[in-house]
Design a protein that fits this description.
With 306 residues, this protein is mainly alpha-helical. It is 55% helix and 1% strand. It has twelve helices and two strands. A two-stranded antiparallel sheet has the order 1-2. InterPro entries: Transcr_Regulatory_Elem (IPR051615), XnlR_reg_dom (IPR007219).
Amino acid sequence: MEAINFARGQLDFDGVDPDLGQHLLHLHWNRQHHSFLLTYRPAFMRDMACNGPYFSKILLNAIYFGASKFSPRLEVRRDPTDVRTSGWRFKERVKELLGPALNCSKVTTIQALLVMTNSLFALGDERSAAWLYSGIAFRMIVDLGIHVYSPDQPGKFSDEDLEIRRRVFWGAFVVDRIQSLYQGRPVTLQEADTRVPILFLDTYEELEQWFPFAYSPDNSCSYPGHPAHSVSTFAALCRLSIIMSDILSCIYAERSFDRDPSELSTMLDSLQQRLQSWECDLPSHLNFDPLNESEQTPPPHVLSLM
């Protein structure tokens, strides 16, 4: 339906040239999307044609901003000679739309804030903005009850709603841990206060063939393609993030050095064993051996587990 809706001019690109908008969306689905599965493509693209609940202009512009850094097109840059200015107008549009969006928590606003968090954090000098955006997203998650899985309320949520809520929660959980590790700050979403299973039922993206669209604008790349394995990669990252939580709370907490050295040593040994078990439990398709020349290099999001 995506191609049909595009051909009919039914997709809302928020005033952006449809060709450029579609280009940036393709970049997003090819690259940034696979890292945390924050955006759910079937619902987003469907609702983009009918202004449904899983599409919003703030999310669209957050996607534009995040995808712009992968684009070779100069029109996405404020300064054509400076790649770091890519997506500047979409960033400004997000800021314009954010004010009204703060009046009411919505899933698409959470997704937009988390997409912006990842994009800003990657710039290096926007860490404060990334931290603040993610903090708002985490509060909205709690406000909407996404941190508690509730499938036993008939009629309240559809299967699609539950799938999206699980993905949004775990995407946020992972972002929280990664940001905290890199910035040396405490996590916000405490595992003890949440109850959401690592369960993703839509596995279409798992075996979808991935090609490096983001890195081959001239289509000259000889990479033969590889199954995306997005869902299993994300599930593994979720399990790893739980161990990250304990690393942060046991080793890097403000009062951790008040503990007896022998207690800290025991904790370190336990964490090391859990990390080794996590690695051993990875399915074979996620256990890439870079020294094995006969093994095909997997997509970047799979490599990120190494």
